């Protein structure tokens, strides 16, 4: 099963539209107004929060415990799991209730989850109890799996910023 990115070209179109408006001489003139400057400052300083509730996560999880010496356990889903999320974005004290916005955020989070936690990508847990206690844990032990997961995360962050 292949997952598509939600809102790819539509998001770029909206950003281009917003850029056009911001560059227009009328908008530039309006931003010189003191009342509008004050409101823009209020919006710019408003906290943005996102609450995510996982309603269901079900699928076949693979756990890889490498032979000693190791201090990590690797895990991943074999196939994309059933993931049911409920997001509540908040802008300041107000909850954003636009269905299009919340659905878009949920799709983005589901897509990111697929990129990080579904094979061939794996995530790991550091478990100090699996070492003898005599060795110091390595500052950073990168394997191809970590690099793959990290690269996927970086690509996802780039995509989200588009």
Automatic annotation (TrEMBL):
PANTHER family (alphabetical): SMP-LTD DOMAIN-CONTAINING PROTEIN, TEX2 PROTEIN-RELATED
Annotated spans, Disordered: 138-162
Species of provenance: Xenotaenia resolanae
Subcellular location: Endoplasmic reticulum membrane
Protein name per its UniProtKB record: Tabersonine 6,7-epoxidase isoform 2
Gene (name only): TEX2
Biased amino acid composition, Low complexity: 140-162
Domain of life where this protein originates: Eukaryota
Chief place where the protein resides: endoplasmic reticulum
């Amino acid at each position: 099963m292949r997952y598509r990115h939600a809102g790819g070209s539509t998001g770029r179109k909206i950003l281009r539209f917003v850029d056009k408006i911001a560059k227009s001489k009328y908008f530039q003139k309006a931003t010189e107004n003191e009342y509008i400057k004050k409101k823009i400052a209020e919006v710019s300083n408003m906290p943005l929060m996102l609450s995510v509730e996982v309603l269901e996560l079900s699928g076949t999880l693979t756990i890889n415990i490498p032979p000693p010496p190791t201090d990590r356990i690797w895990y991943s889903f074999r196939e994309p799991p059933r993931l049911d999320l409920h997001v509540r974005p908040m802008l300041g004290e107000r909850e954003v209730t636009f269905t299009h916005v919340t659905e878009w955020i949920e799709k983005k989070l589901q897509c990111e989850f697929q990129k990080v936690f579904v094979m061939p990508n794996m995530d790991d847990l550091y478990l100090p109890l699996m070492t003898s206690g005599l060795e110091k844990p390595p500052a950073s032990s990168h394997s191809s799996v970590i690099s793959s997961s990290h690269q996927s995360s970086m690509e996802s962050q780039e995509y989200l910023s588009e």
